[in-house]
Amino acid sequence: MNRTVYSEITDFAAQNAALHTELPFSADTAILGEAVKVGTKTAANRLACQAMEGCDGTPDGAPGELTIRRYHRLAEGGAGIIWFEATACSSESRANPRQLWLTEGNLDSYRRLADEIREHALRANGYAPLIFLQATHSGRYSKPEGKPAPIIAYNNPLFEGDNPIDPSRIITDEGIDRVGEQLIETARLAERAGFDGVDIKCCHRYLNSELLSAYDRPGRYGGSLENRTRLLRETIAGAKTACGSDFIVSSRLNVYDGFAYPLGFGVSPAGGTDFDPTEPIWLLEQLAGMGVELLDITMGNPYFNPHVNRPFARGGYEPDEHPLEGVARMLHGIAALKAAVPQIKLISSGMTYLGAAAPGVAAGFIGEGGFDFAGFGRTILAYPDFARDILREGGLRREKLCLCCSKCTEMMRGGGMPGCVVRDRLYTDLYKQFKANQEG
After folding, report:
1. Which domain holds residue 251?
2. What is the pTM of this model?
């Protein structure tokens, strides 16, 4: 069965019917151009650039030349929200030596970039996007000096197998307390740098996300659902207290890991790997009660089961499901959360594989109340002006589409600086150099 990205809407419609994925589609995409209020601020439209890390910061954590280039292009691209990439809360929590890391010492570089994003957007489109900084602790994926230096919530046999990580790498409750303080401080710095909001990152098996499934961990951060969500909830509460009332505190939240209990979140204790929204709904209700108005929802682990959160046409393995079935799990799952907790505005994930059909599917879901914003991840590397074309032309150009070929992921996993190898000549050249270095 065809697994390529949909360059024609008719191809999508045929597979949507054949696979019984029941993704709604609307030929009228005008709803994507609607402005949406979030707190005291307004997103100019319902299209969002998801956080896609470039691994191209400076050694001290400031944005590098390629970082600045990327966000200038996204600013001109017209999305209503730019979800700024993973930014470490401490030196030891960096996922690579070039990961961004916001500090008092480099604050001005972030302030300049936030200002430039708005300036470029205003010149190109007549409005500025809402900009969220993603504050993260990389946890088990920490590599601040380029080699693994994991900080884990617990050993997970899915990852470690018969070689568990040294218990000294399991973070203590006191260590998690310090991480919470560091994330709150990053939120304060993000507000001072001029961002509209902060994302207390809790996804893709980084530390905050890993705690969600710490069923067997003792102490204040393991066992009960209240304990497993403690770091996220208390950090969000702390950031809301530490920052001004106009500053938006949010999270990119993993609601489903794709692993069976007790190794994954968002599954039933009775067994199986189907999405069970029971615990995620409880968490969303708690966050709504704390005044959280916006969440960016995702699923899966890009290091272990990337087909769950980034359905691909070509990758390092052959999944046992069609990519469109992965898209359907993501989007229908998000719609179920929205139905249960309608007061929180939700950003979707998983749109890129849909290709030319993405605007129509996004409009279909939003029109039915399934979510509030359509989030695009890999697309932004291949097609940074995707939002402008959707809003002005009513659709996407086939010659600009992300092909979901996984080469950007290959570069990131190999320690390079990821970008679109197919659509961006600069990264075509970087990829050739990357491959030559690997072969050498």
Report:
1. 9-405
2. 0.98
